[in-house]
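Form P-L/3: holo structure prediction, ligand acetyl coenzyme *A.
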Amino acid sequence: MAKNTMTLTDNRNGKSYEYDIVSGTRGPDVVNISTFYKDSGMFTYDPGYTSTASCESKITFIDGENSELRYRGYPIQELAGKHSYLDVCYLLMRGRLPSPEESKGFDLEIRHRSFINEGLVRIFDAFPDGAHPMATLGAAVMALSTFYKEHLNLEDEAEFKEMRRRIVAKMPTIAAMAYRNSIGVPMIYPDVDRYFTENFLYMLRAYPGGKMKNLGNGLKDEIKQVEVDALDAIFTLHADHEQNASTTTVRNVASTEAHPYVAIASGIAALWGSAHGGANEKVMDQLRMIGDVKNVPSYIAKAKDKNDPFRLMGFGHRVYKNRDPRAETLKGLQDKLREELNLDSQLLDVAAAVEEAALKDDYFKDRGLYPNIDFYSGVILTALRIPVEMFTPIFVIGRTVGWITQWSELKQDPAHRIARPRQLYTGK
Ligand code: ACO
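OUTPUT (holo model):
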């Protein structure tokens, strides 16, 4: 069968260059232009990589036009709330869902790796009160690389897998400690009798000695199953998202042969920005700033004003030019929780009014700007009594498995090379 090719012609001199068109299992075909510079002496120019496929991958598929997101072939709607987050981690890392025995075994492996070295606990002392947990989390994960140097022997499959499990298991502990340090309260160590997500809520909320808040009348502020289930679904919805900014950062750093935990720390840095994972924190600030349904029209006008840098946080996405399927799932979860937990109805009303106004407005419709995952996660996390500065660390906990799985794929890809783009120089 004839190969599919694309011919590019330089109109200045009539020279033509032919490139293979490669098809994946789904999604747009790609033109393999990897020899373009060698052939023509020219670079391609694509700021923000809007037309660039940077790698081949088998992990996550997104169809942004049709609101579709799949992990290893499974639609997100069949995973979030239907399988535990740890089963989804297993799926992402190993390519298939675990059997019930494998699921139990994996859960135990993660529980027993949730502790961190005592030396790493002390790193938090170096940061001032009020330090943002994203900063201390990033620093502690970077420091984690100094405790697991032996895992640089990536030829050893057992070590390779151990290294992946460790980072997933330890991230909630480090995130919870980063938060406790920021408010100056004693650290709480993991409780191996608790499942991953429950354990994280416990480490955030417990008092020294592992006691839960006494509510009087013999009642304790125990963690509710509905809270664990909601946060577990949130972790699943954040678990991977193909070649987004933070994952691309992890892959770029990994391509230099840096330590895997250093690559993960760089992903944390990239995720923190308000155009990426940091948006969930900004959504809450913005909803509180809007404050009342009657103020919504003036903020919509601000977002549309090209002379005003104000953007509607939680709206728009590079890939989804239609509804974000994660946001749709979260909206369903939010409606369910409204019944069962104490959701802030003033905030919910403002959020609903913003959404309704934006979805009707030609500015947002013409540009394909819909609510993204960050628009809904904040209201739900608030109902779970998660402090706003922990919203992005929660994104980190969920995404760690995606980063480390993408890192593994890069390491096992014989075609991988150091990431080294070029430039169009316009300086002196
Ligand atoms: N509010 C108002 N206008 C917007 C918004 C917004 N939230 N998002 C995009 N636009 C406008 C832009 O001004 C631009 O308009 P123009 O064509 O008239 O110049 C157009 O829509 C396209 O926007 P770009 O910035 O070119 O789109 P890009 O794909 O580069 O950016 C991004 C996507 C960064 C997510 C952007 O929509 C944004 O800043 N949103 C707000 C922050 C946010 O919610 N981020 C979370 C993303 S999800 C995640 O990372 C988990």
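COMMENT: The domain at 72-422 is CATH 1.10.580.10 (Citrate Synthase; domain 1).
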